[in-house]
Amino acid sequence: MNELSASSRITYRAVMVRPGVARRIRGLSDRTLAWLFITPTIVLLLAINIFPLLWTIYLSFTNYRANRANVPTIWLGADWYQSILTDPDIWAAMQVTAHFVIWTVVIETVVGFGLAYLIDKKFRGHGLWTTIILLPMMLSPAVVGNFWTFLYQPQIGLFNYMVAFFTGRDASSFQMLGDVTLSPWAIVIVDAWIWTPYVMLICLAGLRSIPDYIYEAAEVDRASKWRQFWSITLPMALPFIMLAVLFRGIENFKMFDMVNLLTGGGPGSTTEVASITLKRAAFESWRTGYSSAFAIILFVTVFGLANIYVKALNKVKSR
Amino acid sequence: MSLDATPSIPSRGLADRVLRRGPLEAGATMIIAAGVVMLMQPFSLTLYSWSFATTLFGTVMFTIVSKVRE
Amino acid sequence: MTSATTAHSVVEPSATTRRFAGSLVVLYAIITMIPLVWIMLTAFKSPDDAISYPPKVMFKPSLEGFCNLFTTRSRQTPEFIRSLGPPQGLCDSIARSRNMVVAGPSNYVPRFVNSLIIAFGSTVLAVALGTLSAYGFSRFRVPLKDDLLFFILSTRMMPPIAVAIPIYLMYRTVGLSDTRLGMILLYTSVNVSLAVWLLKGFIDEIPREYEEAAMIDGYTRFQAFVKVVLPQATTGIAATAIFCLIFAWNEYAFAVLLTSGNAQTAPPFIPIIIGEGGQDWPAVAAGTTLFLVPIVVFTVLLRKHLLRGITFGAVRK
């Protein structure tokens, strides 16, 4: 690109001599141009994200109900926040969320890191197999998650058949989605199936960022493979693992798609994660003010974690 | 991990600052993390009640701290 | 390859290790593919084969799932069906063998078209806005740059349900509820954050010297951007576009909460494909298969850039 082609020079001269738009743009300083380039994005985000957010904050202090817009709106102060933060049912929903977040993140990290470690051995055809493993992550969690309700059918489902085949239990003796103890695990399994490749991909980048000479030095020092793993591989890959853990944690904290389709929160409220509770309050009982307060609580939590995530992102960037 | 090793990365300024205000930011991070744990722990309703205030405080602190130079 | 073997002989894994690692990874890949393969197999099963016990791996392929996906049918008496003329096309004859007649097309095609319009519309917008902003952030001294970038990213992290409440109210007020335009704007706002971060990474990698040389030649900054930077960033823009496309294509939460008929996309529609007596699994599988195939193709095209995409451009390699 050192020399521009003759034809583009001609076009450029044509642009130069034409008065109007080109002249006006040419006259712009870098500073104006910078704002011209950035403003549309900021305006869009202000309109579609920030304005609604401020409105939610306002609504969270009122008794507004979206299905009864004519009822006069009363200022309630922090009443909704107080009632949500002392409500044992919401607290229970948070613990359901915690169970889901912790187990998915633990399983995805352990399996994902393990897979990355194995793929890093660069066996023949690892590129192809890596791409195959990545597929579930790219597909719509809702559409694929919905199909898992078929795999989980007690009599006809493939999952139950497989479990029955390997454990000798009767395939119709357990219901993954209908059973109080099993349904939280049913959603963990599907989430792990979808998102383990995500953790794997980031861990793989971490492992590949470790320069060979460190291992060579360790070999010279006659450090055992086990020792090398614990004092080189793991610490050097840790920022990447943290990045993956944080992102999966945030995403699963607000998980909605898959749970809504697989169990819809049931049976009872055993899989009712925070998003499902919020959806029920907002779009089924239409308690708009109340659900706005709940939304703000979830939002602040996610926002706080996002700060930490960006910090982790920058840490990885400087590698 | 010296910063000079990666001169091509334009956001070095940010990394620089993170390093300098390390302790404050680490404190804010811990408070946010504590708030999140309080929100989801199964042991005490009182801790749950105070989780939102804690997370909010941590987040505000984080935002302010990242503005302070030095 | 061969020269590397001698240079890194100390750290290169042995042949046995490789074979062992390889077989474990292949085993995982096969297990992880089973549900996807099962979706495709179910799409070509007859309803009886789909719900048989034990699950059938070998079966007589049938297009009934696809027929049921694209048509609505109504049950009729055998006498009525005999009184009709010869069946029109394959689907009609399959339906008649089950004592039904094809009543009309289903909603799958309109939903699929909605998905296409909304996904492409929001992608074009997000990439256009994202390219401009990314260039602005990459090349110019912008006050509060880091804060703006964080603000842009944080909008993507918001829980969809929390955003959906005020968006629902706002769209109801301005008449955008259940419209394609409304969904395009919403998806654009979610995608633009990814586009800015990803494209900033790509544009950062284009040496400033190219533009500076062009500007010395008499180009203005804007012309240098159009004629020098944009062509250099084509790969990055394409990769970003595919990421935005995949997100908009896959999105479910906003679609299920904010659309009901007119602008509904395929993801909220596929789970509610119902046959007689419960879900019509071959039809659901057929709809799912058609919906997933484009993404599989895109994933293969995008595999070199996936890592960038999922880390907002932070991890490049």
Automatic annotation (TrEMBL), chain A:
Assigned protein family: Belongs to the binding-protein-dependent transport system permease family.
Gene3D superfamilies the record matches: MalF N-terminal region-like (1.20.58.370), MetI-like (1.10.3720.10)
The keyword Transferase is annotated on this UniProt entry: no
Protein's name in the database: ABC transporter permease
Organism of derivation: Bradyrhizobium neotropicale
Transmembrane segments: 33-58, 100-119, 131-152, 185-207, 228-250, 290-310
GO CC annotation: plasma membrane
Residues of the ABC transmembrane type-1 domain: 94-309
Keyword annotations: Membrane, Transmembrane, Transmembrane helix, Transport
Membrane topology type: Multi-pass membrane protein
PANTHER family: GLUCOSE IMPORT SYSTEM PERMEASE PROTEIN GLCT, TREHALOSE TRANSPORT SYSTEM PERMEASE PROTEIN SUGA
Highest taxon in the source lineage: Bacteria
Subcellular location: Cell membrane
Pfam family, one: BPD_transp_1
TrEMBL record, chain B:
Membrane-traversing stretches: 22-41, 47-65
Record keywords, A-Z: Membrane, Transmembrane, Transmembrane helix
Keyword Membrane: yes
Protein name: Uncharacterized protein
Higher taxonomy: Bacteria, Pseudomonadati, Pseudomonadota, Alphaproteobacteria, Hyphomicrobiales
Highest taxon, organism lineage: Bacteria
UniProtKB/TrEMBL annotation, chain C:
Keywords, ordered alphabetically: Cell membrane, Membrane, Transmembrane, Transmembrane helix, Transport
Stored Gene3D superfamilies: MetI-like (1.10.3720.10)
CDD domains tied to this protein: TM_PBP2
Membrane-related topology note: Multi-pass membrane protein
UniProt subcellular location: Cell membrane
Biological processes annotated in GO: transmembrane transport
Principal localisation: membrane
InterPro entries assigned: BP-dep_ABC_trans_perm, MetI-like, MetI-like_sf
Pfam families, sorted: BPD_transp_1
Cellular component terms per the entry's GO annotation: plasma membrane
Similarity remark: Belongs to the binding-protein-dependent transport system permease family.
Name of the protein in question: Sugar ABC transporter permease
Organism this protein belongs to: Bradyrhizobium neotropicale
